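Incident log, structure service

09:12 report received: a user says their structure output differs between two submissions of the same chain.
09:20 pulled the input from the user's history:
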Amino acid sequence: MLDLDYGSSSVIGDRALHFDPTAVGALGACIVKGFADAGMGAVGKHFPGHGYAEADSHVAVPRDERKFADILKKDLVPFRATIEAGLAGVMPAHVIYGQVDAEPAGYSKHWLQEVLRGKLGFQGIIFSDDLSMEGASVAGGVPERARAALAAGCDMVLLCNDPAGQEVLLDSLKDFPLASAERVERMRKKGGRDLRKSVAYREAQGLLKELA
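09:34 re-ran on a clean worker, output below:
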């Protein structure tokens, strides 16, 4: 979770690591590296940042009317830091950043291709957020949502809370090209060790007890 805690979002709230972009970037980078030590690839969300928009994208279509320069200066900082740390995947937000693009980030070539791939140099896999969420509804039905996400630059689409729609979705995409094997490979388990047996894990447990 790389969103910033602006104190205004009804869904991000204390799910955010911090309100300071540098702190979120540093903590996020540590999580990415910790996952890698265990053999896992990490996915960062909700690109380019869901913390400022008030509405909950599960039940509404949130809007963030800030200028791109403001988002770049703050919300993109954690994504840049974690990408440099080896972030394997990114999940865009179902948020419309009206000063930048008319489409939600997950349907936006500007956000996914020009900013994420271009400006930030991200080479990993892009997962859509859950297409059964209300924030995804602006594209139409489930097949239309999926094609909009894939056309914008998503490599994989998620449909988590619509079992009946999953068969429809799979059927609608049966002739669609598969995601890049190279990007998919970045998500596969690579080595790793049981971190619970490490000194660092025991030290972290002790520190957490002290903080509590």
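09:41 both user submissions now match this output. Likely a transient worker issue. Closing.
09:42 reviewer note: The helical segments are 21-37, 68-73, 76-84, 109-119, 142-152, 163-172, 181-185, 199-211. Residues 21-37 form the longest helix (17 residues).
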